[in-house]
Amino acid sequence: MYPFCYLNGEIIPVKEAKIELSDLGLLRGYGVFDFFRTYNNKPFLLDDHLDRFTQSAKEMQIEIPVTVDEIKAIIDELISKNEINEAGFRIVLTAGSPDDGFSVSTPNFFILVEQLHKYPDHVFVEGVKLATHEHLRHLSHIKTTNYIIPILMQKYADEQNAFDILYTFEGNILETTRSNFFVFYGKTLVTPKENILIGRTRNFILKMAAEHFEIEERPISTKEINSVDEAFISGSTRRVTPVVAIDDATIKDGKVGTNTRFLQELFEKHVNEF
Amino acid sequence: MYPFCYLNGEIIPVKEAKIELSDLGLLRGYGVFDFFRTYNNKPFLLDDHLDRFTQSAKEMQIEIPVTVDEIKAIIDELISKNEINEAGFRIVLTAGSPDDGFSVSTPNFFILVEQLHKYPDHVFVEGVKLATHEHLRHLSHIKTTNYIIPILMQKYADEQNAFDILYTFEGNILETTRSNFFVFYGKTLVTPKENILIGRTRNFILKMAAEHFEIEERPISTKEINSVDEAFISGSTRRVTPVVAIDDATIKDGKVGTNTRFLQELFEKHVNEF
């Protein structure tokens, strides 16, 4: 964690930043957040992340106490004050501490600046395995703070030697605990758009890919695992991470696909020049 | 809120009791709790609540940092120091602040002492209406802190002039957001036991009722609403609350049933003498 954070109007040392026990984010898990990272110390896809954050807050009926422009100014100040060398930003909004203990109230709003999680090179070079789990997130389109299943399933993922859990539901592949899922059929890129959280990196990749590939946003059946040519997942820190196996099945020959590699390089080029 | 609470080893003023922003209970909604109330200033069904709390913690792989006997001693001290006049106790355990931001770590453990929510007399005398909502809680047998749906649905309940939301799932009635559900067919008392949180008050009522009624623990179909003779819900503060309508359907003639009234009086007698 970087030393300075923002909490309810002030930039303060994170060690002094604390929240009351009666906050509904803590007592009732009632909160929303968003997370983005910097490249070259500039926030990447910031507007897209703040759009989603605003939408999440609206759906959960919590009023963000500052404007989007004010959030941007706070982020600039945090970048400068923390003297970051690339960082992740976690923007969190909870329902506060109502008298009745159960209604959305004056929110708590804070921003943490975090060291980026570094994945080992082989993740991006050789690709990863995913382990499936039947699960449909409630309110999957909202970025709530509810990550009980991902944390609880981490042990199972480790046992399976899997990088992440891939949610399936009633015959379809949805998303991983913190990434969107894509497959290639030849030069056609396919990704779900229902019953998932719409990733900002996902949307950026689709836009980038549209110049080179056919795009299909549609349900992906679990039965397709055996017939797709390539697969990958996307996310703010995972970027384009090739998927070479799902449970006991390899994707084709278990090697990273050429179209995935092409998209990965395109993505890296873009962010390096950002 | 009563003035003193317990937090990580100390009894301190609740106004000074705060938690770090990196706690996973706050950032990831990863926590468990239990709640019980006093009658005559003595905790009611304390052992049953602490059993469930211990079980919830175990299932979520969080280690409770004190023994059950130590929890009881803390509760005694909180009762005395707060000079309570009946109170609710909220025992909360979160996954703490791990270095990796995503694993169960040294927990935060706290106990809040709350004023009891008082429902108006007509709730117990005339009964209430419930509004159904199709929803199966994830990990429904564990008392996690995830109450997003109940808080979000409160507005809908108010619009429907309903006391609470009754969860249904694939044709069965499960539970309300914070109560268990029962029906009577003549002298037979029926309540679900799968896909719900097993209430401590529920179990107490079943034990009490077994001396007077036939008991069936089994799924209740939504179609049964039109044929049951009586219905009620149970909970620590709701005790035995008669249900006289569900959505647009009244239960029989919309009056509180005689067996429900009998159980209600039995319950009140028991807790008054506790």
Description:
The structure is a homodimer of 274-residue chains. Chain A has 274 residues and is α+β, with helices and mostly antiparallel strands. Chain A has two domains: 111 residues, D-amino Acid Aminotransferase, Chain A, domain 1, CATH 3.30.470.10; 152 residues, D-amino Acid Aminotransferase, Chain A, domain 2 (Alpha-Beta Barrel), CATH 3.20.10. Helix content of chain A is 27%, strand content 31%. In chain A, the strands form two sheets. In chain A, strands 8, 9, 10, 11, 12, 13, 14, 15, 16 and 17 form a ten-stranded mixed sheet that branches. In chain A, a hairpin with a 2-residue loop joins strand 4 and strand 5. The first copy, chain A, is globular. Chain A starts with a strand and ends with a helix. The interface between A and B is large, with 49 and 49 residues.
Annotate the secondary structure layout.
The structure is a homodimer of 274-residue chains.
Chain A: E1 4-7, E2 10-13, E3 18-20, H1 24-27, E4 31-39, E5 42-43, H2 46-59, H3 68-81, E6 88-94, E7 108-114, H4 121-126, E8 128-134, H5 148-159, E9 164-169, E10 172-176, E11 180-185, E12 188-191, H6 200-209, E13 214-217, E14 220-221, E15 230-235, E16 239-246, E17 249-250, H7 258-272
Parallel strand pairs in A: 8-9, 8-16, 12-13
Antiparallel strand pairs in A: 1-2, 1-7, 4-5, 4-6, 6-7, 9-10, 10-14, 11-12, 11-15, 15-16, 16-17
